[in-house]
Amino acid sequence: MNNLPKVKIGIVAVSRDCFPESLSVNRRQALIKAYTDKYDATDIYECPICIVESEIHMVQALEDIKKAGCNALCVYLGNFGPEISETLLAKHFEGPKMFCAAAEETQNDLCGGRGDAYCGMLNASYNLKLRNVGAYIPEYPVGDAEDCAKMINEFVPIARALVGLSKLKIISFGPRPLNFLACNAPIKQLYNLGVEIEENSELDLFEAFNKHAGDARIPEVVKDMEAELGAGNKKPEVLAKLAQYELTLLDWIEAHKGYREYVAIAGKCWPAFQTQFGFVPCYVNSRLTGRGIPVSCEVDIYGCLSEFIGTAVSDDIVTLLDINNSVPKDMYKESIEGKFDYKHTDTFMGFHCGNTCSKKLAFHEMKYQMIMARALPIEVTNGTLEGDIMPGDITFFRLQSTADAKIRAYVAEGEVLPVATKSFGGIGVFAIKEMGRFYRHVLIEKNYPHHGAVTFGHHGKALYEVFKYIGVPIEDINYNQPASLPYPTENPFNK
Q1: pTM for this structure?
Q2: Is residue 248's pLDDT more than 90?
Q3: In terms of Cα–Cα distance, which of 237, 249, 177, 240 is closest to 209?
Q4: Which of 62, 229, 230, 325 is 20 to 30 A distant from 290 in Cα terms?
Q5: Which 8-state DSSP code applies to residue 135?
Q6: Alpha carbons 359 and 315: distance in angstroms, whole number
Q7: What gap in Å lies between CA 398 and CA 412, rounded to an integer?
Q8: Fold annotation for 9-165
Q9: Cα 416 to Cα 371: distance, rounded to the nearest angstrom
């Protein structure tokens, strides 16, 4: 993943001046040891300048963590804490921040050794609200050294996504295909999130592609593609063009990312793309996504934004799929019923033509795009990577500026089942508990498009916190609710 920030969290301990400073000093030292014993020590930086008790200390600590290159902050209440200074620190730190607090260690020292940080967290949260400062506060933010180390480690992927978003540029090519209003993308919310966007014509891309004809680097890229595809290289005749296109995109990124550090692409892939470029871009999209540069299909701007967030949270390859088709009843009865704990309506197939990285497919072959080939010569539809998606845990999610230009999100954890799809494209049999109700009362009711981002693993907890931190209203961060918890729009008389 070469398109993501490295998070360095500055840990600043604070102390209220009527409590023993030694409580915060000793507890901070224990916290640092607990973290470095179990997690990556390069994730954190211990601010040694002072224990923050005053506004002057706050300025000193802020300068120190900035000088150390910290791009995230953890305010650690070793005791009750100075509510003004600690929240001013959060206010003036430019980057994601979290708060956590020390628990009392032993019943044998509840007089001189009592810190009351349990109480101090309440005042900290109140003061954060007074100052309109957003911060991540763990679900239960009070604990011993090991507990707080775990909280900070869980903040790492959240902070990585937030830092990445603050320095992200989305590059798009071409208007959406006809009849794809579902991927409409009001860009105002991108700016609200701090994301830049560069919108280009597909003619600009075509011109750049033609200028890369005969590029001396093409044979080396072709060789790399051949090694990746192996026996699945069923369309070798198109590899040179695909290599030319890959180099075009990579060079465009370097020439156009400007002052931003991270990039995602929303690309055009049909209907004129095939006839003019002479191939489909699916395989190239999969390769760039595999390097941590998400490329969405059909100029889906919020799709590639979602993919980038998923990449940052999971620190792994993601994909973008259509929530595509139902699982036939005979397939369910033969391969799922009685073998897995899912109802028929919990299952569906996630599909896209061939943009999923080969590392996330159980098997793969370079083929032509069957749907497009129904109306076009097969030879201009070559370039799609087909195969069943690898079984295992997944999280299906999306951040979206919907038709009313409001920011919304959903998150649902599930799995890809080890069931042969017997179909085409990059595709898998997905199972999410109560998917049928989620499909009706979230995806349909709240007007989400058919594209969803997928991480390979359960990352719902971190994604939920990212969406909450960036300002998605709580009522608009939806998930697949259990049967015991009806949706507001659900008919109570359904049987």
Answers
A1: 0.94
A2: yes
A3: 249
A4: 325
A5: -
A6: 14
A7: 10
A8: Rossmann fold (3.40.50)
A9: 24
Query: How does pLDDT run across 215-237, given as a tens digit for each residue?
Result: 999 999 999 999 999 999 989 99
The whole-angstrom separation of Cα 301 and Cα 187 is 9
Contact criterion met (CB below 8 Å) for 358 and 290: yes
385 phi and psi, to 5 degrees? Answer: -105, 110
Tokens linked to 414 = 């599930």
Phi, psi of 308 (to 5 degrees): -60, -45
Instruction: Read off the DSSP letter of residue 136.
Output: B
Segment 426-439, tens digit of pLDDT: 999 999 999 999 99
* Residues 16, 84: Cα–Cα separation, whole Å: 10
The percent of residues above 70 in pLDDT, for the chain, comes to: 97
Question: Which residues of 193-237 form beta strands (DSSP E)?
Answer: 196-200
Number of H helices, E strands in the chain: 16, 18
Q: What are phi and psi of 177, to 5 degrees?
A: -60, 155
pLDDT, tens digit, 9 for 90 and up, residues 313-325? 999 999 999 999 9
SS3 81: coil
Q: Give per-residue burial for 470-480: e unless 16+ CB within 10 Å, then b.
A: bebeeeebbbb
Please give the structure tokens belonging to residue 301: 């701007």
Task: Write the CATH number of the domain with boundaries 167-479.
Answer: 3.40.275.10
List of residues 6+ apart from 307 with CB closer than 8 A: 264, 289, 294, 296, 318, 319, 320, 453
* CB count in 10 Å sphere of residue 394: 28
Domain boundaries, the chain: 9-165, 167-479
Sign of CA dihedral 244, 354, 189, 193: negative
Measured between alpha carbons, how far is 310 from 121 in angstroms, rounded to an integer?
30
The C-alpha atoms of residue 54 and residue 56 are separated, in whole angstroms, by 5
What's phi and psi for 260, nearest 5 deg? -85, 155
Question: Is residue 86 pLDDT above 90, yes or no?
Answer: yes
Q: What are 406's two structure tokens?
A: 């409001």
Secondary structure (DSSP) of 355-368? -S-GGGBSS-EEEE
First-to-final CA distance of the chain:
47
Q: Rg of the Cα trace of the chain? A: 25
Q: Beta partners for 92?
A: none
Structure tokens at 195: 């994301």
Q: Which three-class secondary structure state does DSSP give residue 129?
A: helix
Tell me the per-residue pLDDT of 154-201, one tens digit each, with 9 for 90 and over.
999 999 999 999 999 999 997 776 666 666 678 889 999 999 999 998
**pLDDT score, position 445:** 93
* 33: pLDDT strictly greater than 80: yes
Helix (H) or strand (E) holding 188: helix 188-192
How far apart are the C-alpha atoms of 191 and 35, rounded to whole Å? 36
Angle at 462 between CA 73 and CA 170, to 5 degrees: 85
Token code pair at residue 488: 């507001």
Q: How confident is the model over 445-467, as a mean pLDDT?
A: 95
